[in-house]
């Protein structure tokens, strides 16, 4: 259950304060040039310490590849990789050895396994998402060849919420914003809010929106492998995610069928399109060629610097005040993780559906 | 991709106007008394024609079991079952043979497969959920032995929305309401709204809420098999679902960590509990022993009786007016489907985690 | 665990004396004309009562399709099918209700499940292979389009063993032989042996050999999904199979590397081939374009009509003499089952490797 | 397809001359003391350079653990591990860059992927089995708690074949034999044969026999997950394996049912046993509590030091003479690999069947 995907698969391992975080990417098509700068840049987007808004933990987060690449290209065999943990302050966690932090996974791990690595949350730490970002970067490198593009951004932090859809925003502004919000005014309000809650020793949640452009029609299995169900499953596997909706989502239930249906028409190129896209690019679980878009809800970070009531392993009620290095808001760092998971799902479904154009000259598909 | 689950698995088949809908339930524990009245009653809850609010299509929806049951008990071998389609009006669909109904799966099936059974939506028809309800009924029969109970209800229809949480409602009133809403006043408003949109030839969406009680702590795999991701995947596989959230969901992103964290305390029985349950019974992907609750968004039914613009298979723009028998609102019939999927997930995870207490006297677990 | 395959998948159900044997075929490409005569003929090859050498149980073994086919072609949605059990003599088995027949699955089912349908062996009956033959027939229909052909035959019965390889035999003679052995002289010896053991109330085992021609190079996953491992797993899943070998198999261990290596050379058409084929068409787990061939060992049927010592469910030692209708030798009926499993594996790996040429005009592969 | 297992799973990666061989073990029960000396010793049994009979390539083959272990015990989270490649002589292979060695995987990798790491066979090298031995060592550590023991030995090298079954041999002598054959006289004949073929620049194959003792009754899924099919699939996934048989295997087809059936009787402890064990401990795909035994055929090593005819990537026929460091016979080093794969299968099926006794005090199974 540490493996994700059907054909393009990531198996991940690693704890926050162990030797390394790493993973194995299986099923990546062969012959893909491995753009290591791009991959490292994706990791840097997720890295802590990017701005005063994020945790000051500083990690190089440099990825080392151990297999699956030869003379700069993927070989089709599994890509093993590791990212070493270098800035682990395990002592920060010594007082948490026997304590269950509220709304963390401490208690449930203890119940499930009877043992846990408490340092930095162990396996439940968001450092695990490093492996996802690496695998997602490979998926993006493959999807690029088919002009499939995946872009995510912060659309809500606490009560500050974008009032425009992705079609009304300038998505090229995402990366220049410290909160990865493309609306400069809202972005500033989000920053202000994060600084306020940080000063209070508190945290705040938010929403990441994501759009996948250029996805061909026909991706998705109609019953238990619906494309949006795979995307939802992927997003809900990210730490702190509490909800997923695509197309008009929860908002759409307020409307009537006549308002929500997407009328088909003929586009100028003679292909079939829809006039509106309330469906979010997926109908009956299968992509229809329109943009796929969805929203992912992140709860506020559970680690706060206020006194909280809790219980320890021996069953004593105690008061807890946590120290250490933590984000007041993870949204900006969650953006590349959402993109990575989306890229993995879209590529996996391309491969499942035999849609991806093969790369290598002597691949049997060409010769049969 | 017509198979759902890991240990407890349903493989389903069947089209709306084919011979039969059916499925194979694999991995059901042996020795479970098969309460056929209960199973049929679950099917009846999903059946069309229950009230003037639903489609007048009348189907007996009687399930026939073909295997896996001996002298009234499950044997541990797969349970094959079918429900015959008796009231199919295929002729109603003749004019739809080459037409793509807006916001249906007609177009995407055609793109994916190059061929489709257009009658009643074929495989994309909600009649497919029959198989889920049968398998869910088996799951409920097993879970009953562990006092795990799963209850769903309609919490929103269009703009009519319950303002109480499940702890404030009398859930015993669900089944007596034609819309399966436990708040009589809101239920009446929902009924009024459905009748209005029906008269307009229109449809309306809504939200089903679900609560799972008695689920033990320790269910769920921490990374890619999080319990809530499995539930989300299950719900998003149901026809017309556009969103899933658990615990405080999207609403929770507005709050601070100090407001959302669930403080641990010792319950009267000495066990660890949480004072609040904003987490929705799951922390770090693993159940914590509190109630699990979640919400599922259903879009308005795509079949409306108004003129719509669309395109046919040959690429002509046309005007379409649909006839036939359709629900103006599927929420009441969706309730048992949500419960069925939740029951399958919870049982599957019990079996994955070795939590389910074995039933049969000579099972090897006892003798080893 | 009643599901076989990765992309092309069979889920089977049914007991010997239950209502029906059946299955669900998932992942079959769309647009395949369903040649029902061919499918029924495959079932007839497996059917009991074909000759005096086989069990006199007479079953029509007529397959009914319930879904996944529209206007004579596959639609890409799952094909549900059933074959009713019409000639079940359950009373024959009444004295076996609490008895464990030697070398049958009675004891192990009882230990595993604590309950079992004893009639005719229940789920462990070879009637379960009906579902495999149906699914295999679909796989053959698809493979035909790529000129891939799979042929099996009886190469050994008891001590009577063919001394020629498949390249030295006239495989067109297989079906005209009651034991499905293409060497007329050996076939007669086999028949004589079967009649002798039948007269003694005894049974005898044998070997089925199989060759797959026209399989393109490149099928198979190199580590845990080796093509021959998939074939071996498939064959070992057939009732009564005790061994699998491919290429030179166990015999090959006696030779030196210099004797066993297959030298590469250029064929007349300029393609690379091997001068010998000791490898059996698979190198490093991946097909190399040469014929794939393998052998499958079947133990003698466990049901004999001699007095045997055994134990009953209550733990008493007893003497058992079985009555009923049973084959003295299953080899001829095993031939189509071996072919069916091989066809399913080869097609599944074609689809996994994106080798199968898509059939339908508007399939997205063509348009992307 | 670089992942093996259902609940206890190994995902492996790495090439012969890449940075490292490694893997991820998922699903290992928590609370297991990690006996690193034992694990390293298992690796040493597989290591090259153990005796003059094996390749002189010298590798430390020291395993480094990166995750999943805390304070000396497994935590239930995935165990990432690597073994660095330190003694790689990549230059030895420069002349093989564009050449297809006969009966190696060079040609098929090239056809499948269109690119390959030719150094030392890349991913197709038997160095990949390192990951299996590490994972198998973990499985053995878990199985030990249930007194399940797995022992393999060399039973044939070329034409030198043991004439005794495992019950007639002193299995404690296996490890003191350079060929891991417990019969001293035959062992010496095997050594003599290996030295002869080595002197000729040739190689020789053989058979590994394996016995699993203490396996409880009830393991195995009756149709497509038969225990022996899982074992066969595991063994056929090992490099150079050409055949698998269990119980009486191919030899058993020569006998009659009355000779092969295993009569049940009551053992002195009152439990049911079988007088003979021709079945090999598995009936109907499910373990019956008797010893499980099977045999695995290994072809002669394909790398020989004689001139061979072959073809290069550009399609020229050439003569090839290989240099480098290679085993004349892999049988002794294959023994721990066979054991490792068997241990992984048996543990996986224990976990699938809920048979393994949980280890940790607060595991939910105890509290529910």
Kindly list the characteristics that best describe this protein.
five-stranded antiparallel beta sheet, alpha+beta, 368 residues, 8 helices, 18 strands
| Number of E strands of chain A | 18
Query: Most extensive chain contact?
Result: A-B, 102 and 102 residues
Question: How many domains make up the coordinates of chain A?
Answer: 1
Whole-Å distance between the termini of chain A? Answer: 36 Å
**Rounded average pLDDT of chain A:** 92
Order of helices and strands of chain A: EEEHEEEEHHEEHEHEHEEEEEEEHH
**Rg of chain A (C-alpha, Å):** 21 Å
Instruction: State the low-pLDDT regions of chain A, or none.
Output: 357-368
Task: Kindly report the CATH topology of chain A.
Answer: Chorismate synthase, AroC fold
Please identify which CATH superfamily of chain A we are dealing with.
Chorismate synthase AroC
What is the strand and helix layout of this fold?
4 copies of one chain form a homotetramer.
Chain A: E1 3-4, E2 9-13, E3 20-26, H1 36-46, E4 63-65, E5 69-70, E6 73-74, E7 79-84, H2 106-113, H3 129-144, E8 149-157, E9 160-161, H4 184-199, E10 206-213, H5 227-236, E11 241-246, H6 257-260, E12 264-266, E13 272-274, E14 282-283, E15 286-287, E16 292-298, E17 308-311, E18 317-320, H7 331-352, H8 364-367
Describe the structure.
The structure is a homotetramer of 368-residue chains. Chain A is an alpha+beta fold. The first copy, chain A, has one domain: Chorismate synthase, AroC fold. The first copy, chain A, has helices at 36-46, 106-113, 129-144, 184-199, 227-236, 257-260, 331-352, 364-367; strands spanning 3-4, 9-13, 20-26, 63-65, 69-70, 73-74, 79-84, 149-157, 160-161, 206-213, 241-246, 264-266, 272-274, 282-283, 286-287, 292-298, 308-311, 317-320. In chain A, the strands form six sheets. Chain A has a five-stranded antiparallel beta sheet with strand order 1-2-3-7-4, covered by helices on one side. In chain A, strand 8 (149-157) and strand 9 form a beta hairpin. In chain A, helix 1 (36-46) packs across helix 3 (129-144), helix 3 crosses helix 7 and helix 5 runs antiparallel to helix 7 (331-352). At the A-D interface, strand 2, strand 3, strand 7 and helix 2 of A face strand 2, strand 3, strand 7 and helix 2 of D. Strand 11 of chain C pairs antiparallel with strand 11 of chain D.
